[in-house]
Design a protein that fits this description.
rod-shaped; single chain; alpha+beta; 4 helices; four-stranded antiparallel sheet
Length: 161
């Protein structure tokens, strides 16, 4: 399970069940009544299982999304970039994040180029170039037909296309 919310819900569910079991033992020992112990045991078990169930639903939904769209693509808004504008620097941290993402998705690349926009980089493959955005929780690949117009013009001018 890669989803943080799902992990937290699952852990919380087990904690609720554990606290209920401990509370049931304490009540059973203090009151000498099994009936008094069953109430917190049952309610904590049901509550914990609901939380674990929500965690499982989140995990399954995330798997469905990954199967439907393994490379999240987002259309980004246009902010004008001049064709003569110099690209931002490619930091080691950004380069490692991009390389890890590409390796995890079995994408072979030839070159990673920075662009004038912050958190946008061009990944040159054998047959094409893709835009990759690092501004969110996970990198997003943007196919060339969905590039912002200003970056498309900048790349064309830079490469005399």
């Amino acid at each position: 399970m890669d989803n943080t919310v799902g992990k937290i819900l699952q852990i919380l569910g087990f904690v609720v069940i554990g606290i209920g079991i401990i509370l049931a033992f304490i009540l059973a020992a203090e009151t000498d009544s099994i009936g008094m112990a069953l109430s917190p045991l049952f309610t904590s078990f049901v509550g914990g299982m609901v939380l674990i169930g929500f965690a499982e639903i989140i995990r399954l939904l995330e798997r469905v999304v990954q199967k439907v769209n393994p490379f999240p693509i987002e259309i980004v808004s246009d902010s004008e970039v001049e064709a003569t504008e110099q690209p931002k620097n490619l930091s080691e941290e950004n380069e490692m994040e991009i390389k890890t993402f590409l390796q995890n998705n079995d994408i072979e690349y030839e070159l990673i180029e920075p662009t004038p926009r912050e958190d946008f980089f061009i990944v040159v493959l054998k047959n094409e170039a893709l835009l990759i955005e690092l501004g969110s929780f996970q990198p997003k690949l943007i196919s060339k037909d969905k590039w912002p117009n200003d970056l498309r013009k900048w790349y064309a001018a830079k490469n005399d296309i």
